[in-house]
Amino acid sequence: MYQKIVIAGNLGGDPQMRYTPSGVPVTSFSVATNRKWTDASGNPQERTVWFRVTAWRKLAETCNQYLNKGSKVLVEGEMEPDPQTGGPRMWQDKDGRTRASYEVTAREVRFLGGAGQGGGAASMGGAASGTEEAGGPLNEDEVPF
To answer: Domains (ranges, CATH) in the chain?
Structure first.
C-alpha cells in the first residue's frame, strides 16, 4: 500500500533546522494552503489549511538554505498520523480552542515563484530527499522533537 499527498502553498515562517543525536539534519516548516470560492449567496469565502512539513538529510539542508517565510513551495510527501489517534495531531491554542496539525514528511520539495521569490527550477528528489538512504530508515529515538 502507498499514500502520497501533494500540497502547494506559502511558508508561514522561516524553516527550523536541527540535528538528531546521530547527526542527521532535519528541517521543519509550516505551509499554508488557501482556497477561495463564492458561496450560493454570492458571498466570497476563504479557507486556509496549515500543514507541518518535516524534511530529512540533504533535502532538510536545502530547504533550510533556500526557503524563508512567504516562499511558495510544492511539497510531495506522506501524511504522518498521530500514533494514538490515527488522525491529525490535536492540540489546544493559547485561547483554549482545539486545533489540528496535519503532519507531512517531505519526499520532494519544489521551490515555486519567480526570480527573487525563492523560486525557480530548484527541486530535490531521489534518495537524498527521502527518509531513507544508505544509512537505512530513521527510528523514533532519532527524531529531535
So the answer is: 5-133 (2.40.50.140)
Written as nine digits, the cell of 13 is 515562517
CA torsion 112→117→118→119, rounded to 10°?
30
Measured torsion, CA atoms of residues 8, 129, 23, 105, in degrees rounded to the nearest 10 = 40
Cβ atoms within 10 Å, residue 104: 20
What is the per-residue pLDDT across 24-77, written as a single tens digit (0 to 9) for each? 999 999 999 999 999 999 999 999 999 999 999 999 999 999 999 999 999 999
111 touches 71 (CB < 8 A): yes
DSSP 8-state class, residue 71: -
Predicted TM-score (pTM) of the model is 0.75
